[in-house]
Amino acid sequence: SAVPSPVPATRVELTVSCRQLLDRDTFSKSDPLCVLYTQRPGSHQWQEFGRTEIIDNSLNPDFLRKFVLDYCFEERQNLRFDLYDVDSKSPDLSKHDFLGQAFCTLGEIVGSAGSRLEKPLTGILGKKCGTIILLAEELGNCRDVATLQFCANKLDKKDFFGKSDPFMVFYRSNEDGTFTICHKTEVVRNTLNPVWAAFAIPVRALCNGDHDRAIKVEVYDWDRDGSHDFIGEFNTSYRELAQGQSRFNVYQVVNPRKKMKKKKYLNSGTVTLLSFAVEAEHTFLDYIRGGTQLNFTVAIDFTASNGNPSQPTSLHYLSPFQLNAYSLALRAVGDIIQDYDSDKMFPALGFGAKVPPDGHVSHEFPLNGDASNPACRGIAGVLEAYQHSLRRVQLYGPTNFAPVVNHVARSAAMVLDGSQYFVLLIITDGVISDMAQTKEAIVNAAKLPMSIIIVGVGQAEFDAMVELDGDDVRISSRGKVAERDIVQFVPFRDYMSGGPGAGLSMAGLAREVLAEIPDQLLSYMKARGIKTPPVPP
Q1: Most-buried pick from 266, 314, 440, 496 (CB within 10 A)?
Q2: Given the DSSP bridges, would you call strands 97-105 and 250-252 parallel, antiparallel or unpaired?
Q3: For 354-370, how does the pLDDT look when each residue is reduced to its tens digit (9 = 90+)?
């Protein structure tokens, strides 16, 4: 997938309310204040992020002052809210009465129904401290997208033999009076009366959010050698264009040099706006707030190339002292995704092993042993089922991905309405045996609400995985090209530092594999024309 343009991080505004706080004041009710603490990535130290205002005499405060945070889907952002009853003007918190605290992640708030999370306040032994209510709202930085269509009439003829081949170039003006190119139409060949195709452009790109700022449009006659001839220009603004098709949106195309030379010069043709429409571009958070659930499925490689699980050299070795690469990768990705999955039940499959009772080779066996319901409770449940399976099955081969891809695709094909989106995590030592079938499965899955994350463990060459990733060349099968890029591959060894920094490198692994999910979800919704459902009240 292409590198996204550097859009500022999504910013989220948190509103805090509490209900039934402890009453610490003798003569009146408590005067509460909420303090938010955050952690820097990779650090376990809490830093004060900000404080709300103090609300006098209330056990059910709705704080007005909000916290604005940068939100990253692919990071675990831990938050801590401490409540105090303020007794004096002192900024020193130890001088005030502690009323309780709550811990959560930003993903937990955002992933709750309507992005509203209610939690009990705790921290005072033997006392009910009431509840905290956290509401997250995405701050809009103009997300509107305008769709425009233009035609022109009686443009100047510039070509000696035929008519002109006109195209237009749009520029937005900057604060300092300079202009920045923001759109180029296609070329319409051999006509002085072109009708250009409609095009969509973010309003930000067209006018930087300032509806009265000048937009300059230049009209050219295209020449093969790149020396395009200038026909003329006109100025407009977003506010004018937004009136749509009207007599105000017919523009004279003027060539200033001709105007100076010839007294009788009127124009070099006219350009007319045929249509204008604007709609808000939905974001990942719009869909999450609207109730879209992420369904997380894990598939683990049980082929013999991983090495005998009872030997410390095996990628599947279960040491009493540390998690193996499979467990680490599963936790790194699962810990973040689970915030967006309300039932916290995760189907977990294995492939490439001989399974009991008869020892047949299976490429999609349930790690929990229950074929009718392979879902495990929480990431802890998946880890437990994985360790149990290792003791039960015999590592074998070949390494076939297609069955687990098709397994999740069958579930995804049953809910195409955007209410659910499926993420399959495949952890593998990487030597794939059914490349053609897997490509076919991925091309078919690209039409469905699903994404595939592949984490490669061990020291193998992962050329095949890089090909499946489709970043450089979009994957195809039997001449059919995948309509979306849905695979993200990451080699685990790039993040293996071991030692005290291991946690940090796992956060890096999660960032890398999850970074593309929001855009992949959006590309599905867009391709299917799914609008976000209204947020539940």
Answers
A1: 440
A2: unpaired
A3: 999 999 999 999 999 99
Neighbouring C-beta atoms of residue 105, cutoff 10 Å: 18
Question: Do 278 and 203 contact (CB within 8 A), yes or no?
Answer: yes
Which DSSP string do the residues of 134-178 spell out, in sequence order? Answer: EEEEEPP---EEEEEEEEEESPPP--SSS---EEEEEEEEPTTS-
Domains of the chain and any CATH numbers? 10-139 (2.60.40.150), 144-280 (2.60.40.150), 292-528 (3.40.50.410)
pLDDT at 438 over 70: yes
Summarize pLDDT for 262-284 with one digit per residue, the tens: 989 999 999 999 999 998 888 89
Cβ–Cβ under 8 Å, residues 106 and 136: yes
Contact 363, 403 (CB under 8 A): yes
Which H or E element spans position 334?
Answer: helix 325-337
Single out the residue of 325, 317, 298 nearest to residue 379, CA to CA.
Answer: 298
Between 8 and 108, name the one with better pLDDT.
Answer: 108
In whole angstroms, give the CA distance from residue 85 to residue 142: 39
SS3 447: coil
Who has greater pLDDT, 532 or 534? 532
Helices 325-337 & 502-514, crossing angle to 10 degrees?
A: 60
Q: Which residues pair with 275 in a beta bridge?
A: 149
Which pTM does this prediction carry? Answer: 0.75
CB count within 10 Å of CB 254 equals 19
Beta-strand ranges (E) seen in 213-255 are 214-221, 229-237, 250-252
> Which tokens in the block code for residue 253?
């195309």
